[in-house]
């Protein structure tokens, strides 16, 4: 039982490049989330998926898109990366019966 | 969006000391969660609180859900080196659509002085 896994662990992009961050969970959780973490600002919600087939915007969705491919996987896409998107990105999942979210190890993204 | 004020921002203590930190909000929360994050890792859940006034322990950690539902406290007794890290409070509030979103505090960085 790996919990929540994220790939890649590190990534460097040039401004304007695109990429997809992958997240998968093997805990059969219904809800999945994408956060970004910046120094001194805690974690901020980008997008979430309450269940397979649904996605909703969080606090800071601009510049991102998401896909809930199936119950296990929730990907985050940057279509045209900007330096302001340099951050650490965390994926999390939550079972339907609990309010507790469980986090992956993060992806550290640098946009130059 | 919702704001969670977490204090202190940082703490420098000696091994064996007790630690206290808290989170306050202007809004009412229906859940309080406390996480710890080690460098280069994701947050790990320490304690979950679901009812106003609830006091819950996890080893040397004790957390309380404030009676007003607008605050929560985390205490660590007899600190040890592995307690070093960043502690985050997080709260959930049910939105109009019934989808719960987690709001995070800005963290308390705990350092143990040799």
What does this structure look like?
The complex is a heterodimer of chains A (112) and B (114). Chain A is mostly beta strands. Chain A is built from no helices and eleven strands. In chain A, the strands form two sheets. In chain A, strands 2, 4, 5, 6, 9, 10 and 11 form a seven-stranded mixed beta sheet that branches. In chain A, strands 1-3-8-7 form a four-stranded antiparallel beta sheet, with no helix packed on it. The N and C termini of chain A lie far apart (36 Å). The mean pLDDT of chain A is 94. Chain B is mainly β and 114 residues long. Chain B is built from no helices and eleven strands. In chain B, strands 2, 4, 5, 9, 10 and 11 form a six-stranded mixed beta sheet that branches. A five-stranded antiparallel beta sheet of chain B has the order 1-3-8-7-6, with no helix packed on it. Chain B is globular. The termini of chain B are far apart. The mean pLDDT of chain B is 91. At the A-B interface, strand 5 and strand 10 of A face strand 4, strand 5, strand 9 and strand 10 of B.
Descriptors:
heterodimer; A: 112 residues; mainly beta; 7-stranded mixed sheet; globular; B: 114 residues; 5-stranded antiparallel sheet; 11 strands; 0% helix; 57% strand
């Amino acid at each position: 039982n790996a919990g929540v896994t994220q790939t890649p662990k590190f990534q460097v992009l040039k401004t304007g490049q695109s990429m997809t961050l992958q997240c998968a969970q093997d805990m059969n959780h219904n809800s999945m989330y994408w956060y970004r973490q910046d120094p001194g600002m805690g974690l901020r919600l980008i997008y979430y998926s309450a269940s397979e087939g649904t996605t909703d915007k969080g606090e800071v969705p601009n510049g991102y898109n998401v896909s809930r491919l199936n119950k296990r996987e929730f990907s985050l896409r940057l279509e045209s990366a900007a330096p302001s998107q340099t951050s650490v990105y965390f994926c999390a999942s939550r079972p339907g019966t609990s309010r507790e979210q469980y986090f992956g190890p993060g992806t550290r993204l640098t946009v130059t | 969006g919702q704001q969670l004020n977490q204090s202190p921002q940082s703490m420098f203590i000696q091994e064996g000391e007790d630690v206290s930190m808290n989170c306050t909000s202007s809004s009412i929360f229906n859940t309080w969660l406390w996480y710890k994050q080690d460098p280069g890792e994701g947050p790990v859940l320490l304690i979950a609180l679901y009812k106003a006034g609830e006091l819950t322990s996890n080893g040397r950690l004790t957390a309380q859900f404030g009676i007003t539902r607008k605050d929560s406290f985390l205490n660590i007794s007899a600190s040890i080196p592995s307690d070093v890290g960043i502690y985050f409070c997080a709260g959930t509030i049910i939105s109009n659509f019934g989808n719960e979103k987690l709001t995070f505090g800005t963290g308390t960085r705990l350092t143990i002085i040799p």
